[in-house]
Amino acid sequence: MLGRSLLSHDGYESSSVSLVLPLAGAALCLLALADVFLTVLYARSGTGLLSPLLQKAVWNLFRGVAGSRRSLRDLILSYAGPTAMVVTAATWFLLLIVGVALIVWPALGSGIQASQGQTPTSFATAFYYSGYGLTTLGTGDIVPRTDFFRSLMVLQAFTGFSVLTLTLTYFMSVYSALVRRNVLANGLHQLSGGTGDAAMIVAGLGAAGSFAGARGALTSLAMQVLDLLESHHAYPVIHYFRLRDTRYALARVALLTMDTSSIVRTALGKDHADVATSGALQMLSGSGLALLRTVEATFLPERAEDQCGAAEDGAWHQRRFRAALSKLRQAGVTVASASDAHRNYSDQRATWAPLVRALAASSAFDWAEIEVPDIAAEETDR
């Protein structure tokens, strides 16, 4: 057997293998524990040692398998986030089990023995002993015979229980953050009347020409966006939760947040200048842009913003913006001069639209799924 050929049966002797294996095992355990600490307890995006790489690898695998057919793509990618979570947790436990197995392997037959009969010295036996201890099931039919390995067994059980508890806490925290993200996304969708059009959100805020409650609504939206920003800092894996309904897409959330802010800032007439210059609006636009910058730094490929910037069609957006002004007028809102307002709107949009396009592309969404074509703008084309 491999254990018999590599190891002696007298415990930790002077052979190099008996020294290297425990050191390698300890390194694996420390790697797993460090990643658990950085992912669950420290919890800032990009700080994990293994989890960011594992989760990105799972996403890339699913995206490669999904292909370009929309129905199949959406179905397959909807499982990427949950799978990334399972792979991350499984890797933590596998590293710990293998690490402890390497530590105890040289001691099989001496410091650790079978309760009856001869003690097997294979790595499979060490793996079995390690898994039994880390899952807090006890010692099974192989037991520690020295104080050191008895103490190690206690440490195994404590570590296994702690990591299991932290993993369950991590799962619940991620899904709680995901629910809050979906509530925000669905709320924005409903505020737009189910259209995905920011102009409808602004028209709703200023119904009958009154923005009396607009500051409170904008502040509430900004707080939800800030919560989403912090969720991406603490649990970046939620970026890989891509639901099949586009209303829940992060790119759609970012688009409606930033477009609402830009329309309020540029399209409203002087009668509503207090809303356009309010701290609530600044809070909304600032939090939305901070969210986009965080996603850019953590998930988007280099120069993705530059590559997507050229895709903006200024002429089409001018027609769309005029359609937005028309909707605001229909809601009784006083609007700014179309030509001046559009120039300001274009300048505003240039600061965030390329990032939203890059985010949509990285999430495997077509742009037409995120910024739904405006019927009024299309009719203007005709």
The whole-angstrom Rg is: 28 Å
Count of distinct structural domains: 2
Query: Which spans have pLDDT < 50 for at least 5 consecutive residues?
Result: 1-5, 8-14, 375-382
Helix content: 55-70%
Number of helices: 18
Structural class: mainly alpha
Described by the principal axes of the CA atoms, the overall outline is: elongated
Strand count, sense and barrel status of the largest sheet are: 2 strands, antiparallel
| β-sheet strand percentage | under 5%
**For the residues shown, what is the average pLDDT?**
86
Count of strand segments:
2
Write out the strand line-up for the largest beta sheet, numbering strands in chain order. Answer: 1-2
Q: How far apart are the termini?
A: 80 Å
Q: What string gives the helices and strands in order? A: HHHHHEHEHHHHHHHHHHHH
